[in-house]
Amino acid sequence: MAGNVGRKPRDKNREAVATREPANPETGTATNLNRLIHERTRLAIISALAVNDKLTFMELKRLLDTSDGNLSVHARKLEEANYIECAKGFEGRVPRTEYRITKEGRKVLKDYLAHMERIIGAVRGGAT
Length: 128
Description:
alpha+beta
């Protein structure tokens, strides 16, 4: 406990709160990026689902070269934000989990990419 003296308690809902305020790609800055999809694994998940109609858990796992636990945790965060949807079922006797991007997920990814393009453009424009 002595190591925590003077430190602010960690806000577990910080990411969720940050995503409630939509980033405005026209006026946005690097500080108001959508933190929920800015994380590497989550961005990879939502990007993979944006270019595929649907992907199973195993397909995503292979594509992202990640562990079951890591994929599960990050997919759940995207699902809780309603950026992706999950359908569970069986293929024969084998459990099968499929993910799809939602309309809202596609919109936030589009906004995120527009925001990043503006930042890249500003950096490139400033470098000449």
